[in-house]
Design brief:
three-stranded parallel β-sheet; single chain; 2 domains; mainly alpha
């Protein structure tokens, strides 16, 4: 007869996730801007998810300069995206509490000092992780004295950069744009896919 396995409990949990629902990154016309502006969370909702976190930006200027960062409307986390991330945090919490072990004890005790967070320097990803933290732990604490630090150091390695970053990338992109398949689609396709062309 086989020996029954003892119940294993987690000692460490690592969550890797993408941001929640966001507005398009590409800039659209004025009517689309109005449509997406209405989908963004209020300043009060943003402050609520920021509660209990301290963001430490490795390069503060990068937030507004990176082409993938969006602007005040485009590339931003929507209200729906914020809700998705809070729900994801709640689901993670339920799973971790059910599994027991060190992560569950830390959650039950509200020991935020055992939480380490790394995030890219975009508003949508920062707000996503803040919303996830609200569902996971912060929203369950009556009062909090220690903030969860959200750091961005070294995250430039995680970013897909639309600017040529490796030798030969510009040539490879030019080869694609000049391929028979792309050229056969006509100038309207090229203009829609890459407005700079």
């Amino acid at each position: 007869m086989a020996t029954p396995l003892r119940r294993l409990t987690p000692r460490l949990v690592q969550l890797i996730h993408r941001h929640g629902d966001r507005s398009p990154i590409t800039k659209l016309g004025p009517s689309e801007r109005s449509l997406w502006l209405a989908q963004l969370p209020s300043a009060e909702a943003v402050r609520a998810v920021q509660r209990g976190t301290a963001v430490v930006l490795d390069r503060p200027e990068y937030v507004d300069q990176h082409p993938g960062g969006g602007d005040c409307v485009f590339g931003q986390l929507t209200t729906r995206g914020m809700q998705q991330m809070q729900q994801a945090g709640e689901e993670c919490r339920r799973s971790l509490l059910a599994a027991g072990g060190a992560p569950a004890i830390a959650l039950e005790q509200g020991d935020v000092g055992k939480i380490a967070v790394t995030c890219t320097e975009f508003n949508r990803t920062l707000r996503s992780v803040q919303a996830l933290l609200q569902g996971l732990v912060l929203g369950h604490l009556p009062q909090q004295t220690t903030a969860v630090t959200v750091g961005t150091r070294g995250t430039d390695l995680l970013l897909p950069d639309p600017e040529p970053r490796w030798p030969g990338q510009a040539d490879a992109e030019a080869e694609v744009w000049n391929s028979e398949e792309v050229l056969a689609r006509g100038p309207s396709f090229c203009a829609a896919a890459d407005p700079a062309r």
